[in-house]
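A student in our group prepared the protein record below, which I am reviewing. What it holds is a sequence and that sequence's fold in token form. My question to you is simply how this chain folds and whether the tokens agree. Do not assume that whoever made the record got everything right. I have pasted the whole thing underneath without changing anything:
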Amino acid sequence: MSRARRKIFWGTGLIILGLTLMALYTYSRVSGPVWNPRALLGEGERDHIAGYVCTIQDEQGRIISQVGRRVSVNDEIITADGNHYRVVRVEGNTARARFLGLDRDLLAYNEFYSQMTVPVSRVARTTQPVGIYHTHSDESYVPSDGSEAIPFHGGIYQVGQSLVDRLQKKGTRVDYDKTPHDPHDDNAYYRSRRTAANLMKNNPIALFDVHRDGIPDPGYYRKNISQEDVAQTRLVIGRENPRMQANLDFAKRLMSYANSVHKPIVKEIFMGQGNYNQDLMPTAVLIEAGTHTNTREEAERGIALLADAVPVILGITAPAPPGAPKPVTDRTAATPGSWNALAWIIILTVLGSGAFLVISAGGWDRASARLAHFFGREFASFLGPRRERKALDASEKATVPGKRDPDASEADRDHLSRIRQD
């Protein structure tokens, strides 16, 4: 293959690669989760493993949290009191987390919602539904269901129905998709992606994926709230997701208001290594309702209490009171991080184009010279047309018999020649 053909081959390949990456990004916004390098290793969001427990401790050895999932460095936790931690080391089933300080946003929400009184209203202010589904459709509760997992018919469906019933009682429209996504493996979220995308067709105002945890201790989630034994909930946000900041803000508001009404129904917010299909919209959250050793009835009562906060936070059945933060569903609200993935695609495309230029020019020095010549010529044409016109007129005057323009020097003639060549 000749040198010229190799340049064409590599240049065309790099351009095609850039265009392909941009097309895949556009397609994945609806049909597939954002690109995750762990997918190349066959690893998915491995969570809710019945009987498994990872204990997360602070730097003094105090227990912060227990979860039935794989914990990774850089996972984060925000407690109901606003304490913010980040995992810095994982050794077996124990993770160490560093205290990052108090989360100022959550503290502000806690202060506001603790003093807020919301008008009672059963008239829905929007026709947008809340979408609900279950990625792990086998998840069950041992004391009530007899097993931690019932393929395709887990007790989690009754917990989801409790959430549906409470929302509908509050005047909220609900789309509940009961499509199963078994088996409970690393690819379950890829299978549930289609269900979540189908729910998105109805323009939902929020999207909830309902699960239960898998730690063995039922007392970790069991609380007595309003004279009833209930299972607390945990809100989970995927941090490998361009909408992560928007999802997190929604979760903070939800936890803050729910706990102001039924304290402490939400235990914490966990930001884990994963996507959880939350890139689909800024108000997507994964809910864990108790653990497999709680009774299903405890989980049903707990998630019903959480449901009381949903219409208020989304502004479905009550107007925002004076001084309230801008609703997360406001179309003018920003969704931080939405452009991160696209920015990386653009960077890769620019790098590919630069590599093509270097290859085609035969080296970095020649490529730099070409760029300098190109931009110098283009900016001269854009910024100085009147100067060039003046130089052209002066040169033309110099060619009129009997007249001599003192400015029509040899440099002017060279400049005129370059203009005509361009």
User: Anything to note?
Assistant: The mean pLDDT is 81. The first helix runs from residue 3 to 31.
